[in-house]
Design goal:
Distance between the termini: 18 Å
Structural class: alpha/beta
Bound molecules: pyridoxal-5'-phosphate
CATH class of the largest domain: Alpha Beta
Helix content: 40-55%
Strand order of the largest sheet: 4-11-10-9-8-5-6-7
CATH superfamily of the largest domain: Type I PLP-dependent aspartate aminotransferase-like (Major domain)
Radius of gyration: 24 Å
Number of helices: 16
Number of domains: 3
Strand content: 5-15%
Largest sheet: 8 strands, mixed
């Protein structure tokens, strides 16, 4: 029996019992646990976290000392129905590795307190780690970044506009770039003007600004389950209640979405209709229309994250939700990170007028605007027609790498492993037979110099052994060379085979598991 979202970082400076106590407090604060709830028996929680039972006992004792929990005499431990009488003191031996920093521990806000921060930072470090063979993260190959051409674009912009690009620019962004983006979206069927486009520092900032526009602490967001960890982090930091709706191979399930809309009355729905991260699912047009109709019926805004737009290398483009909806109820997020270069940190949000005004206000609060010189360089790059040949090249390359990865998987993975064949994007999604744990595989693979993203980390309701998705993983093909793909997949195949022969398993499950959790 686990506590949703609670995982332990064994490398953390914070003692494990303290991580557990902090995690229970955090879960109570953001609604994963409710006051009055019974906590799991210490033996069960210890088993699910793979820690000593005494460690859990120590965590419960600590919480009991502050009045956060009560009733520890054989009949179970319950969260107190009132807020705790005293705050939990700072961890005794917590601090930075050099022994400094303890004095800060009582100063932090709830957003950055507790073990969640270590977990978040280690996930991002892993995504960008420059070690061994990495199928983790989701980004373009460095070799494919257009350094030379972009340098020329920046120089041309500076030559024309000089010091103006070194001053503050308009908060909403460089006007010519906003117009170019609106024209491109219009070409794809959207009704949008440059005046409704806000330039952001990547889609990540777009997510934060849009979520902040609609969510107060305790409000509810509906997301596909599993979904992008960066979106879950923003929702967590805003103290929103996140409701995950299961998917099938066509994306979020409309029947369960409707049930969630009725039950939770959310403030927004966050969706990635194309090459969903992490499952790679693509919503067909009919499903997109169905989902939109539900959102409109229940009066709930939709946030469409089109992070891998333009990275389709097979099949026909499907209209975005924004295009299908004529931009009335959908706020669209785009980015140049995946199709061009993440380092320029340019993304955009397209929104109805009234939403747009609020987004600009939050953007001003957040950072006073995205770098004018980078936006101007990007605009020159686009105006010179450089994106089209670049996309042609990267699509061909990614298709090739996807095929290599599929071939290697067919060769080296046992027959009962299932995976997707995405028609675009940067990665594929793998399901191991039940009984095999991707967390364990991760530790063993890392020792052999191979990294990937564990599937459980993308789920709303829990991480660690036995959690939803603990037999899934995401493998990115875009940033590994053909040789690395073959060697890395062979290494994973060997490890899976050796675990396969040791573990009890039932095998042969469908790739997308739809578990009603509402
Ligand atoms: C689904 C999804 N949305 C948004 C982002 C944020 O990307 P960026 O801020 O680089 O545009 C990512 C990055 O991996 C992503 O996978």
């Amino acid at each position: 029996m686990a506590i949703p979202g609670l995982i332990i970082d064994v490398d953390s400076e914070v003692p494990v019992y303290r991580q557990i106590a902090d995690g229970i407090q955090a879960a109570t604060a953001d609604g994963r646990l409710s006051r009055g709830d019974r906590l799991p028996p210490t033996r069960d929680l210890a088993r699910s976290l793979q820690v000593n039972r005494n460690t859990v006992v120590a965590a419960y004792d600590l919480l009991a000392a502050t009045g956060f929990v009560h009733g520890r005499t054989g009949r179970g431990t319950y969260l107190a129905s009132e807020p705790a009488a005293r705050d939990l003191p700072a961890p005794a031996n917590a601090g930075t590795a050099d022994g400094h920093g303890e004095e800060w521990f009582s100063a932090f806000s709830q957003t950055v307190d507790g073990p969640g921060v270590d977990r978040l930072l280690s996930a991002y470090q892993l995504a960008t780690a420059d070690e061994g063979i990495s199928f983790a993260g989701s980004y373009p190959d460095r070799e494919l970044l257009p350094a030379g051409v972009f340098l020329k674009s920046i120089k041309a912009a500076m030559k024309e506009e000089g010091a103006a690009l070194l001053a503050y620019g308009p908060t909403a962004g460089y006007p010519a770039l906003r117009n170019t983006l609106a024209e491109e979206m219009t070409r794809k069927g959207s009704e949008i003007r440059g005046s409704q486009i806000l330039i952001t520092n990547g889609a990540q900032q777009g997510l934060e600004l849009v979520f902040r526009t609609f969510l107060d602490p305790g409000d509810t967001a509906i997301v596909e389950d599993p979904t992008y960890t960066g979106a879950l982090s923003v929702l967590g930091s805003l103290r929103a209640k996140t409701v995950g709706v299961p998917m099938d191979e066509q994306g979020i399930r409309p029947d369960l979405l409707e049930a969630a809309l009725i039950r939770h009355r959310p403030q927004l729905i966050y969706l990635q209709p194309t090459f969903q991260n992490p499952t790679t699912a693509v919503m067909p047009e009919s499903r997109r229309r169905e989902v939109l109709a539900l959102a409109i019926r229940y009066g709930c805004p939709v946030v469409e994250d089109d992070w891998a737009g333009d990275l389709r290398f097979e099949g026909k483009e499907i209209p975005t939700l924004h295009a299908l909806d004529h931009g009335r109820h959908v706020i669209y997020l785009g980015t140049f990170s995946k199709k061009l270069m993440p380092g320029v940190r340019v993304g955009w949000a397209a929104a109805p007028k009234e939403v747009f005004r609020r987004l600009v206000a939050l953007k001003q609060i957040s950072d006073c605007g995205t770098s004018p010189i980078l936006q101007a360089g990007l605009q020159r790059y686009l105006a010179a027609g450089c994106l089209r040949p670049h996309l042609k090249r990267v699509r061909a390359e990614y298709r090739n790498r996807r095929d290599l990865m599929l071939e290697s998987m067919s060769r080296y993975f046992p027959g009962k492993v299932r995976w997707t064949t995405p028609p675009g994007g940067l990665f594929l999604w793998v399901r191991l037979p039940k009984g095999l744990d991707s967390g364990e595989l991760f530790v063993a693979a890392r020792r052999k110099g191979v990294l990937f993203s564990r599937g459980d980390l993308f789920h709303v309701d829990g991480q660690g052994p036995g959690a939803t998705g603990s037999n899934t993983l995401r493998l990115t093909y875009s940033s590994a060379s053909p040789e690395q793909i073959d060697l890395g997949i062979r290494t994973l195949g060997d490890l899976i085979r050796s675990r396969w022969s040791e573990s009890p398993h039932d095998g042969g499950e469908p790739l997308v598991e739809a578990v009603p959790i509402l």
